[in-house]
Amino acid sequence: MNDSPQHAEGGALGVAAYMDRVGAAARAAARELARADTATRNAALAAMAAALRRDAPALLAANAADVAAAQEAGHDRAFVDRLTLTGATVAAMADGLLQIAALPDPVGEISDLRFRPSGIQVGLMRVPLGVVGIIYESRPNVTADAAGLCLKAGNATILRGGSEALRSNQAIAACVHEGLAAAGLPETAVQVIATTDRAAVGLLIADDKHVDVIVPRGGKSLIERVSREAKVPVIKHLDGVCHVFIDAAADLAKAIAIADNAKTQRYSPCNTMETLLVHAASPRACCRRWPPSTRPRASRCAAASGPARSCRR
After folding, report:
1. Please, are residues 37 and 128 in contact by the beta-carbon 8 Å criterion?
2. In whole angstroms, how large is the CA radius of gyration of the chain?
3. 168, 208, 251, 275: which is deepest, by most CB within 10 A?
4. Which residues lie below 8 Å from residue 99, measured CB to CB, with a gap of 6+?
C-alpha cells in the first residue's frame, strides 16, 4: 500500500486517518482472500519467495542502513544481531514461504462431525479470522513469516514492526506485494505500517471496526501494553523460560550436543536456552563431558537439590 501518514494531515489526526485507511483496506482485502482458492494463495507464496531471492541484494542494502542506524543509536549487540539480515537469512525467509505453501490448506477443513438427536449433522469448520494485526519488534524476518502464515490461512494482515527495522520491512513488503499481485490478489492483503509514530500501535489495537485479532510478539512491556489497551481479542504469551532437561537415561553425547547448540548457535533469539536441567544422578558426568569453551560451571551444576540439578550459564 503506497498510502502513508505523510499524505494526511500532520500530527495525531494524520496518523489516525492513515490507520483508518489501512484498516478499511485490510477489511476489503480479507473478503477477497476468503474467496481465494488454495492454488491462488500458494501461487502468491511462491511468487513472494522468488521475489525475495531475486531482490536479496536490495534487501541486504536496506537492512545495512537499519543496522548502521541502530549501531549509531547505541543499541546493544544482541539487538543488532536480531535486526541483522544475511544472505542465509534471506534465503531462509524464501524457503519458509515455500514450506508454508506446501502445508495442507487449513481453510474449510471439517472435523468432529456428529449427528445430533434431531438428526442434524453438526461439525467444526476452520475459516479465516479476517484481519490479523501483528505487532513485533526489530526482527525483519518476522515480516515474511507473518505475511506467509496469514495468507495461507486466508487472512489479511496489518504488520507493525519495530521502527529500527522500517527500511528492511518495507523492502520485504515490496516483495510480498509483488507476489500477491502476481497471483491476482490485492496488495493490501498484507500491509506494513509506514509510520514510526507510536500512536499507530494504540490505534491498531483499538480498531475493533476493522481488526479481528491482535498478535503481539515481543518483550514483556509490549505484551502488557497490548493486553491492557486492546479493544479486540489478543493472542499472546507473556513470561517464559526456555529449559532443556537431560534425563538419567539420555545418551549424554547426543544430549550435550543438543543442549550446547540450543545455547551457543545464536545467543539473541527468544528461544535460546536459559536453563539446563540435569537429572540428579549425573550432573558432574554431564558437566565433565561438556565442550570446555561452553561448559557450565561445575559448582553451579552441583548447587541445586531435588530430582534435577540446574546448570546456568
Report:
1. no
2. 23
3. 168
4. none
Q: Determine the Cα–Cα distance for residues 204 and 222; give it in Å rounded to an integer.
A: 14
Render the burial of 219-236: b for 16+ CB within 10 Å, e for the rest. eeebbebbeeebebebee
CA distance 62 to 192: 15
Q: Is 131 helix (H, G, I), strand (E, B) or coil?
A: strand
Bridge-based pairing of strands 131-136 and 156-160 is parallel
* CB-based contact 15:197 (threshold 8 Å): yes
Q: Percent of the chain, pLDDT > 90?
A: 63
Determine the CATH number of domain 5-109+125-229.
Answer: 3.40.605.10
Check if the beta carbon of residue 15 is closer than 8 Å to that of residue 199: yes
Contact 173, 143 (CB under 8 A): yes
d(Cα 152, Cα 34) in Å, to the nearest integer?
A: 11
CA angle 297, 298, 299 (to 5 degrees): 90
Domain ranges of the chain: 5-109+125-229, 243-311
* pTM metric for this prediction: 0.81
Per-residue pLDDT tens over the stretch 59-116: 999 999 999 999 999 999 888 999 999 999 999 999 999 999 999 999 989 999 999 9
